[in-house]
Amino acid sequence: ELKVEQNPLFLSMQEGKNYTIYCNYSTTSDRLYWYRQDPGKSLESLFVLLSNGAVKQEGRLMASLDTKARLSTLHITAAVHDLSATYFCAVGSGTYKYIFGTGTRLKVLA
Amino acid sequence: KAGVTQTPRYLIKTRGQQVTLSCSPISGHRSVSWYQQTPGQGLQFLFEYFSETQRNKGNFPGRFSGRQFSNSRSEMNVSTLELGDSALYLCASSLLAENYGYTFGSGTRLTVV
């Protein structure tokens, strides 16, 4: 069965710094999604990655997918406080089913 | 446009009772999925519906069931509630999940006492 691991689980970083969140998965999939969740809120879709080598960017966030390595990264550039949230990756498993990673709780310190 | 609407937002039930949660997807979205979120297990897939048909389900006991109506609205039911069913239940809808991902509702926070 598909397993999805994210690391790190917790990330505390200074404003202005760069960092990367990793999402590894155990079986073949070519569908990967990134979501953001603020405390007490629902999930917000960030990126949809549907092919090997896919790269998407929005503001200070950039996501990429390497299906051969079964790895996706979410890169944060010049972090700002507003990016503090929990970030989840979700991987397509078979049909119409998505397995979520454990989440990475990001805290950006001023 | 209106987002995914889940009702009720909060619910407190007693062990052994049953509960029904409701989800109204974004207009035009025919795929609806349900997830359970807990601090210990994270986000776990419950089931997915499209045009009133369940197309996939997760590894939950038979006490968890769902359905979708012709207008794409969906309900999930949990019978014989257990303390461990306390969680945030999230509904998500999509026009075409594979290409667009899902839009999530705000969730129903269920507490079983």
What does the model show?
- The complex is a heterodimer of chains A (110) and B (113).
- In chain A, 0% of the residues lie in helices and 56% in strands.
- By secondary structure, chain A is mostly beta strands.
- The mean pLDDT of chain A is 93.
- The relative contact order of chain A is 0.33.
- In chain A, strand 6 and strand 7 form a beta hairpin.
- In chain A, strands 2, 4, 5, 9, 10 and 11 form a six-stranded mixed beta sheet that branches.
- In chain B, 4% of the residues lie in helices and 53% in strands.
- Chain B is globular and about 40 Å long.
- Chain B has one helix at residues 97-100, and strands at 5-7, 10-13, 19-24, 31-38, 42-50, 53-57, 64-68, 74-78, 87-94, 103-104, 108-112.
- Chain B has 113 residues and is mainly beta.
- In chain B, strand 4 (31-38) and strand 5 (42-50) form a beta hairpin.
- The A-B interface holds A 31, 33, 35, 41-45, 48, 50, 88, 90, 92, 94-103 and B 31, 33, 35, 42-45, 48, 50, 55-56, 58, 90, 92, 97-107.
Which SSEs are present, and which pair or pack?
The complex is a heterodimer of chains A (110) and B (113).
Chain A: E1 4-7, E2 10-14, E3 19-25, E4 32-37, E5 43-49, E6 55-58, E7 61-66, E8 71-76, E9 85-92, E10 98-100, E11 104-109
Parallel strand pairs in A: 2-11
Antiparallel strand pairs in A: 1-3, 3-8, 4-5, 4-9, 6-7, 7-8, 9-10, 9-11
Chain B: E1 5-7, E2 10-13, E3 19-24, E4 31-38, E5 42-50, E6 53-57, E7 64-68, E8 74-78, E9 87-94, H1 97-100, E10 103-104, E11 108-112
Parallel strand pairs in B: 2-11
Antiparallel strand pairs in B: 1-3, 3-8, 4-5, 4-9, 5-6, 7-8, 9-10, 9-11
